Amino acid sequence: xxxxxxxxxxxxxxxxxxxxxxxxxxxxxxxxxxxxxxxxxxxxxxxxxxxxxxxxxxxxxxxxxxxxxxxxxxxxxxxxxxxxxxxxxxxxxxxxxxxxxxxxxxxxxxxxxxxxxxxxxxxxxxxxxxxxxxxxxxxxxxxxxxxxxxxxxxxxxxxxxxxxxxxxxxxxxxxxxxxxxxxxxxxxxxxxxxxxxxxxxxxxxxxxxxxxxxxxxxxxxxxxxxxxxxxxxxxxxxxxxxxxxxxxxxxxxxxxxxxxxxxxxxxxxxxxxxxxxxxxxxxxxxxxxxxxxxxxxxxxxxxxxxxxxxxxxxxxxxxxxxxxxxxxxxxxxxxxxxxxxxxxxxxxxxxxxxxxxxxxxxxxxxxxxxxxxxxxxxxxxxxxxxxxxxxxxxxxxxxxxxxxxxxxxxxxxxxxxxxxxxxxxxxxxxxxxxxxxxxxxxxxxxxxxxxxxxxxxxxxxxxxxxxxxxxxxxxxxxxxxxxxxxxxxxxxxxxxxxxxxxxxxxxxxxxxxxxxxxxxxxxxxxxxxxxxxxxxxxxxxxxxxxxxxxxxxxxxxxxxxxxxxxxxxxxxxxxxxxxxxxxxxxxxxxxxxxxxxxxxxxxxxxxxxxxxxxxxxxxxxxxxxxxxxxxxxxxxxxxxxxxxxxxxxxxxxxxxxxxxxxxxxxxxxxxxxxxxxx
Length: 678
Description:
The protein is α/β, with parallel strands linked by helices. The protein is 39% helix and 15% strand. The strands form eight sheets. It has a seven-stranded mixed sheet with strand order 3-1-4-5-6-7-8. Strands 2-9-12-13 form a four-stranded parallel sheet. The model is unreliable at 411-429 (pLDDT under 50).
């Protein structure tokens, strides 16, 4: 009998952890006599049409087909499953994963009659599949399957079997025993893309953050994988050369002291075997911060930390209470991470979610100001009302007067911008039918609560993109830092920037047309019932046919004519906050410090300033500033645009550079020499 596992992904080169764990568990625990053939998991949706994907499954003569579903693949998975069932009615169709909405939609099984069984969204797939396969072989008593959900009397019924998650018998040697599959992935890898190993040392989350859904359930008991099994698995992967990128998917790594030792062990593997190349931690402990700080230090020392992540979700205590969030205070966490940043030179990024209940424009701009002042600004997450999260419950929605719109994400536009030079066909050939518009799943985005209106949400949405670009690209970072020292806090600066700078009084006609159009589009989107590509905007008034995110738009606006842009900023600051004698010099220094296509690294142009703006101590004098950068973007690409004429530079590099967001556009290295005033 044949088990076919389908998990359509948007990323190539992944060892499918679910398939590895399910198969290994069944091999260790199956009590039947049937020999189940586990075909390698199907993850690619690259095909000319859906029927081609269906035929791929049918060619394996399946007894049962299991689909792992989440927001990015549920639409395509449903259509493939429907056609498989239509072609082979006797094949069992099973769905598992966070996007099984049987609780939220009473007509779930009516709408999806081809689905025979669903695993509970907080259930463990291993014992579910193990017993399901046994019942297929024997009695077909489906209610003996733990975590079983199936149609009954127009609704659904749930298995009465109680499974003790704490006693879960973790399967052993899940990689070593499936070495043939790992070699298959390696042999068929996409060139230049590293292979991702997903792994968990424990499962479940004891907390109940209302916006969240997590494998194994939230507000649940936590099951821990034996330490010796972890050591054995990861050692084998490193020794066999199979541990390229390691993604740990625990909700609260650091919750127990053992977690520190596990990370130390991984760092030792890096030292001994040169891998993993990258270590990504999905979730860190909310309450055991001392362990979290130790973990981040270990990763920094081992060269495994590309940034430090502070997942505070919000900085306002009322908001945190409304979402049942337990965490250490923001100031405490920042103090520790700032010391680590100073020691290791690694970025800090604060992770916040836009528009949680209790958010107001006042506390929104306070948090944005804190992030900008501390140089930890990162793109805020849009709050998607996940169907199996506590926040989606009707009583929670009514309590906080939550309003949503349906967001239809055209994932062909998942890059920073889409131009006329990239058509949907090219994207689909690279990424597969999972990206096709007809299969993209609608999700709900929160655009209003009892504490803010839709209009205020639109302001937060646009401001997030503006502040992110101005701070992470560096365009206004030195200016806002200086103004903060003379009594203009970042929060006030950016609130007034949105409310009074984006007008015809300061902006030229082109930039005003672009930005005003963006604001109008944002306001329209939040008022509609549904919106396609919620965070992408059509650029009006420019020669390019572009859809772009706000940070890319800011890159365009600044660099169309940065001299005009900075002059407008200067006039606005004077009108809004008054004149300062250092401001003229700072504005001119900022204009000259933007690293753009007019820069020639082989013949850098020096410029003069009255102050050394790279120093924390401002002493008036005469300073010669000479840029020395030879690379651009955080990936340190070599600058080569100076080899071409300006027309070629604009055609080849302007949009390319604008599309790289979150990467400093200012010179990283400026040689500053004081000189005598004649």
